[in-house]
Design goal:
globular, 380 residues, 14 helices, two-stranded antiparallel sheet, 10-stranded parallel beta sheet, alpha/beta
């Protein structure tokens, strides 16, 4: 079971001080957060991708590449990579470079995004969102798995004898999660390929989460990837904790009440009752998230949104210490109880290489246009 933190990278006013951090401060904060995630023994740091204010993470590979150089153990992920508006060729190449730099500590969460205007900004039509997700991801898989690709589709220029470089580290592509809040077609896509499904259920009741995950599990089994309970599932979550629950509620309420994503709507009490947002003591957070598997089964990854709504970095780092020091150790123990032996762990680069029968250097050397011989053949 992997535990970690994801960020949407919002640049939001702190309602208790009236100050809004700069983009520079928020970018540097992501680095500090990722390093804290590793320091306290968590497993994953994930960044979102946005191309509009009030968000700053427009270049996940740049951010994650810097973090890779400053960390040694944590998995670096996305939450999400926009499979609809990014060119699959650029995704294949950028994340392969990151995979090499991070020695394999990379996976991706593919998603359509939740900002409508991003489609025309990148020359796409939002009405093609699902079709783009399907076509682009099919091409991305081929670019990572085939040295030479001939391809033609609806949404981008055809490819003739194209090789994406560099080739994936050890000849094994990064593991892919398909992230969705409300779209059954994305759960179907994840199941079809036998990839992971990440349900970011931070704004939805558990009944909806349960429906989406069970759909994915049934279809995973239908496509012959194994029993439904071996499908790879991840969940999003939110919490704010202090030793005393009353202190947690009092401190977090001003941020909740005016947060761009859920402020000026349901009360904090109504929202926490209806969604996985948990504001209270560490024990309350533990009990809430230990119960998740009653709805979705044994799963592989739990990520928490912590740095949002204008919370200052110092507070976020305190929350990560509580998460790593009190909450996750208890959850690891609780969620290991009764976990069937055949339920897999979250895939890692090492496990994917082992499943492939070992790694190999996938470097594709240049071919001489006249002789058709590769460089290593010419100099043999």
């Amino acid at each position: 079971m992997q535990f970690g933190v994801f960020s949407v990278g919002d640049v939001t006013l702190d309602p208790t001080t009236g100050r809004t951090p700069t983009e520079n401060e928020r970018i540097k904060a992501q680095v500090a957060i990722a390093r804290k995630v590793e320091e306290v023994g968590l497993d994953v740091y994930a960044t979102g991708e946005h191309h509009n204010p009030p968000f700053m993470p427009s270049s996940p590979t740049t951010l994650l590449g810097h973090i890779a150089a400053l960390t040694e153990r944590i998995v670096l992920s996305t939450a999400t990579t926009l499979i609809t508006t990014n060119d699959p060729v650029k995704i294949a190449e950028d994340y392969a470079v990151l995979q090499h730099l991070a020695d394999g500590r990379v996976d991706l969460m593919m998603g359509r995004g939740n900002t409508g205007p991003v489609y025309p900004w990148f020359g796409k039509d939002i009405r093609d969102g699902i079709a783009l997700a399907v076509e682009n991801y099919d091409l991305l898989r081929r670019l990572w798995r085939e040295d030479t690709v001939d391809w033609q589709g609806k949404f981008r220029t055809p490819l003739q004898s194209f090789t994406a470089t560099p080739r994936p580290l050890d000849g094994v592509a990064p593991f892919v999660w398909h992230g969705s809040i409300r779209t059954p077609e994305i759960a179907e896509q994840a199941a079809y390929y036998g990839d992971g499904f990440f349900h970011n259920n931070i704004f939805w009741p558990l009944s909806h989460t349960e429906q989406m995950v069970q759909l994915y599990r049934r279809r995973f089994e239908h496509y012959g990837h194994g029993p439904a309970d071996t499908a790879v599932v991840g969940l999003g979550g939110q919490f704010f904790a202090r030793k005393n629950s009353q202190d947690a509620v009092a401190e977090f309420r001003p941020y909740f009440d005016v947060a761009p994503v859920y402020g000026h709507g349901p009360s904090l009490e109504e929202f926490t009752a209806a969604t996985p947002l948990t504001v209270g003591s560490p024990q309350q957070v533990i009990e809430r998230y230990a119960a998740m598997r009653e709805h979705v089964g044994d799963y592989q990854r739990q990520l928490f949104l912590i740095d949002h709504a204008g919370l200052p970095l110092s507070t976020v780092l305190e929350q990560i210490e509580i998460l790593g020091g009190e909450i996750v150790p208890a959850l690891r123990e609780e969620l290991a109880l009764g976990r069937p032996a055949h339920v897999p762990d979250a895939p890692t680069h090492a496990s994917l290489v082992a499943a492939a029968g070992g790694g190999h250097d996938g470097t594709v050397h240049a071919v001489d246009d006249v002789t058709g011989r590769r460089a290593e053949e010419v100099h043999a």
